[in-house]
């Protein structure tokens, strides 16, 4: 949605966006760029398909914009979950 809104604002010829996600658990030791080095961590693999006659520059910018999506930013930030019983 963030990509589509950005493309519409820039008047790009984007006609569709499809995002596919995969989730797995991997050993932290197998992730060179991860801060966590022990145990398992969650890995989300994302594949983005852009439809329309976009230039390579527009396609590259769309990937940058995908990382600014509120959901992406939430998933890549530190998360503090606090639970309480109600009722």
Summarize the amount of helix as a percent range: 25-40%
**How are the strands ordered across the major sheet?**
1-2
Round the mean pLDDT to the nearest integer and report it: 91
**Major β-sheet annotation:** 2 strands, antiparallel
Report the principal-axis shape: extended
> What is the CATH T-level topology?
GMP Synthetase, Chain A, domain 3
> So, CATH architecture?
2-Layer Sandwich
Secondary-structure-based class equals: alpha+beta
Low confidence ranges = none
Looking at CATH, the homologous superfamily is: K homology (KH) domain
For the termini, the CA-CA separation is: 36 Å
Strand fraction: 25-35%
Number of strands: 2
Calculate Rg over CA atoms.
Answer: 17 Å
Give the oligomeric state. Answer: single chain
Tally of domains: 1
Number of helices: 3
List the helices and strands and how they pair.
Blueprint: H1 2-10, E1 14-27, E2 40-52, H2 56-66, H3 70-76
Antiparallel strand pairs: 1-2
Helix pairs in contact: 1-2
Structure overview:
By secondary structure, the protein is of the alpha+beta class. It has one domain: K homology (KH) domain (GMP Synthetase, Chain A, domain 3, 2-Layer Sandwich), CATH 3.30.300.20. The protein has three helices and two strands, in the order H-E-E-H-H. A two-stranded antiparallel sheet has the order 1-2. Helix 1 packs across helix 2.
